[in-house]
Amino acid sequence: DQGYPSVVSYFQNRRLFAATPTQPHTVWMSRSNSYTDFTGTIPTVDDDPLTFALASGQIDDVRKVISMDRLVLLTEGAEWALGSGQADVVTPGNLSTKPQGYHGVSMLDPLGVGDSALFVQRKGYIVRDIDFDFSRDKYAGRDPTAFASHLTENTSIISWAYQQHPFSVVWMVLTDGTMAGLTYNKEQQVVGWHRHDLKDGLVKS
After folding, report:
1. C-alpha 22, offset from chain centre
2. pLDDT digits (tens, 9 = 90+) for 93-123
3. pTM (2 d.p.)
4. Strand runs (DSSP E) across 50-202, as ranges?
5. Which residues of 59-80 are buried (b: 16+ CB within 10 A; e: fewer)?
6. What is the C-alpha to C-alpha distance for residues 203 and 161, in angstroms, rounded to an integer?
């Protein structure tokens, strides 16, 4: 018994499971348009289910996934993209995974913000954005925390949420019970950090 997967998602009309206790770096995807069917055929056809492991030279646990132009898999030590082109329909015949960076992700869910995504790095105190960089032909991003690294210097992010309106703000709960905000609008090149201390209490969530 390999246990239950800790990651569940959907991509290109397939249900996705990943990261069981015995196979933390393996991903299973259902037959196309049939979320409960994981049985294959001989010979294989394009809508057959998919199973693959991330070959990184070490056991690299899949922690989160996010659907962009391609499926981006966020692991304990790296960021991976599934597929060899931006508009690829993933099939058993064109299945490929490529590392995009080696930052690693925490256990917090990534946030979709505009046409980018934000994730917290493995240690819990650095926020990174990620989207497709045409000049480098890969998913890449920057570290918005660099503009105010002192806000998370002696603490880490334990919870966060995105507020789209009236302002684009990511709210974060820190381990010291305070709250930090990131006003973020990549299209307008706006990145602004702010810290919020509650005089008579601590933030839980």
Report:
1. 21
2. 888 899 999 999 999 999 999 889 999 999 9
3. 0.89
4. 50-53, 62-67, 71-75, 79-82, 97-101, 111-113, 116-120, 127-133, 138-140, 157-163, 169-174, 179-185, 190-196
5. ebbbbbbbebebbbbbbbbbbb
6. 13
